[in-house]
Amino acid sequence: MEKQKNEWFEWLKAIVIAVALAGGIRYFIFAPIIVEGESMMPTLHNQDRMIVNKVAYKIGEPERFDIIVFHAEEGKDYIKRVIGLPGDRIEYKNDTLYVNGKPYKEPYLDEEKKQVFDGPLTESFTLEELWGRKTVPEGHLFVLGDNRRYSKDSRHIGFIPMDKVVGKTSVVYWPLSDARIVE
């Protein structure tokens, strides 16, 4: 009887430890997220399930073109692409991104640009025209959705404070047929 009690206790202990580890990993390191909407099309699709790396920016800085998840003002989490880092001058002119006066290629938009016949995919703008600032403020990011015509992003909601960033995401794990690493 004592041996059976001891074995039961060991199983219970193992289950509690497993649940605590899984909860800790989910809360502090990785978390699942569901893409809602089409603002990141064609890169991400509505209802794609992804993994968010929550420690990516605890140990490093965001990089241009990272796909991030952040807490938006509306109490929702948004998924967008980092375009501007602190101190950057951002401008769109003739459907081309300029950062600090230098043109940048955005290969993830190439297919979408080919399908647009009634104007540019991304309307021309400068940060100063949008927000009265020449550069992205310190401690903030400027983000855009890949579906530029239908994305609520920094052009509409402003700069994203770094403390609102949940983490970086690049792994789609569901649906299984679309599982991939996105860039």
Automatic annotation (TrEMBL):
Keyword terms of this UniProt record:
Hydrolase, Membrane, Protease, Transmembrane, Transmembrane helix
The reaction(s) catalysed by this protein are: Cleavage of hydrophobic, N-terminal signal or leader sequences from secreted and periplasmic proteins
What is the membrane topology here?
Single-pass type II membrane protein
Please classify the protein's predominant subcellular localization into one broad category. membrane
Among InterPro entries, the record links this protein to:
LexA/Signal_pep-like_sf (IPR036286), Pept_S26A_signal_pept_1 (IPR000223), Pept_S26A_signal_pept_1_CS (IPR019758), Pept_S26A_signal_pept_1_Lys-AS (IPR019757), Pept_S26A_signal_pept_1_Ser-AS (IPR019756), Peptidase_S26 (IPR019533)
Extract the GO molecular function terms from the UniProt entry.
Answer: serine-type endopeptidase activity; signal peptidase activity
Q: What is its EC number?
A: 3.4.21.89
Q: Which NCBIfam families match?
A: sigpep_I_bact
Keyword Hydrolase part of the UniProt annotation: yes
Please name the Pfam families in this protein's record. Answer: Peptidase_S26
Where located?
Cell membrane; Membrane
Annotated active site: S39, K80
Task: Write out the similarity annotation.
Answer: Belongs to the peptidase S26 family.
SUPFAM superfamilies (alphabetical):
LexA/Signal peptidase (SSF51306)
Q: Which domain of life is it from?
A: Bacteria
GO annotation, cellular component aspect: plasma membrane
Q: Where in this chain does the record put each Peptidase S26 domain?
A: 8-174
Q: Where are the transmembrane segments?
A: 12-35
Choose any GO biological process term that the UniProt entry carries and state it. Answer: signal peptide processing
For the keyword Ubl conjugation, the answer is: no
This protein is called what? Signal peptidase I
